[in-house]
Design goal:
319 residues; alpha/beta; Rossmann fold; 2 domains; globular
Length: 319
Amino acid sequence: MDIIPLVARFPALASLPRASLGCYPTPVVELARLAPGLWIKRDDLCADPVGGNKARALEFLLGDVHPGDHVITVGSAGSTHALAVAVYASRLGAHVSVGRWRQEMNATAAQVSRRLADTTDAAPIFRTPVGAYLCSWRERRHGARWIPAGGSAPLGILGHVNAGLELVAQIEGGLLPQPERVFVPLGTGGTAAGLALAFRVARRDIHVVGVRVVPRIVGRRGRVLRLAAGTARLIERMTGEHVPRVRRADISVLHHAYGGAYGRETEVGRAAADRLHADAAIRLDPTYSAKAFAAALESSPGGPTLFWLTFDPRMLDTP
């Protein structure tokens, strides 16, 4: 197994169990025809059959899962995180349970929901997250392995720290200029936290912009900062090295793209997704990536800007 950037920077982390799910580094591509200085990080190509940012976190979260284990997670009805857990934990021989709750559905979420129903045991979709969490808590009491919503726990966030260090290596290799800003959808916050921490570790002045796609109680800068701090403490415990903390000024949150409900498609997001598909044949999802890409387009030009694609549409094409 190749040495990943995270382990190259912190060799003691090589002792962590890791499931090799992805193929890295993922490409960076310039989108100059859409906006000067705009680039895209194609994490849709990181793994097969379910790429995107979830695979990066699951490499660590599922690292010590064995055949016969019981893995449980939660998510909305059309959760790509839940689908990724179901696919990869099943491949490792585990039994998977998913607690889900209702959301406002769009076409992509409906496809993901159908795939989840085909991949996991039939289970009710609860009216609110409370029911799903209570059901999951009961199973955890009987020894099920818990994967938090979105994979946003320090262990999983290590995958996103690795992603940020991977981008830094691509900058150092001359594959793209250093972006002033990296735009990423902001859901449970793990991706933004890991990227911001990676840029602090690498001493790179790159600002992370989280485009909120969830209710404000979840998509908060304070939550991202706490996740980053918890991940820094995990690295310190395992390596004995001091890890710099993400500063409040390293992250900003854009709230205007949300649309009023989780999963609600917006006209601005749809238009941005149509532009990217027409220019580069890259598909976005209405819940997360279309909204973040629209925000990245709105910010350009204005110095090098990177849009981090966290969604893999191929998961919808696989039977």
